[in-house]
Here is the input.
Amino acid sequence: MVAIAEPTTQTPPMSVETETSTRNGANFVLNLDHLITEDDEPVDNIFSEKQQRLLTEPLYSSWAGPSENQPYLVAANVGVFYSIHRPAIVPDVFVALEVQVDENWWTKAGRSYLMWEHGKPPEFVLEIVSNTKGKETHQKMLDYARIGVRYYAVFDPGQHVQTKMFKLYELAHGQYVEMTRYWFEPLQLGVTLWTGSYENREATWLRWCDKSGQLIATGKEQAERAEQESQRAERLLAQLRALGIEPNNE
Here is the structure.
């Protein structure tokens, strides 16, 4: 398996997925053909799939980002490659700042999160536990620490591998230290456990929130709130007109 070819100015064969890199001033072609970006295996259970969407969709529906015009990427079940010689680590959810989706996301380089392309790991990674086989509190924790993920979270609704439903860690001197405050300053986001109905299913879910603890709304919640505001305004208008008052629309 050849990962780095000799310096070349020739166009690589169209049948080989490649990416150009620079080392010591010379251009090299990275052969990405061996990277396994999808294995066609489904998520392990319905709850995990819904929980992943509850953490990805609201950020694109209702969150402006950590600061104005700062790009970010939120994804579920997408491989994070930290080396062309190693298989990807696949978190249930990750958040990465200053990252945008590749314009050509059907290439090998665009299908996954390549750390050598973006220059850093994601800021936040979440693993959702559904059994005792995932090694979320052992090997995965070591892997994420090794590649430099700053915040690592383990959500274990059934308490299969830890005594608490949710634990959050921050990287300090190469090791994870458990956090007592669920707030991520670089992201300007927090997380909270929320018991309620999502997609007609009552459960305890993990959700994003702002610094005051206000939930980051889903797209459906945003639409419902807008409809409620519209109805409230219509009722107020009707009451004013019943009193003989015509509001000034200027």
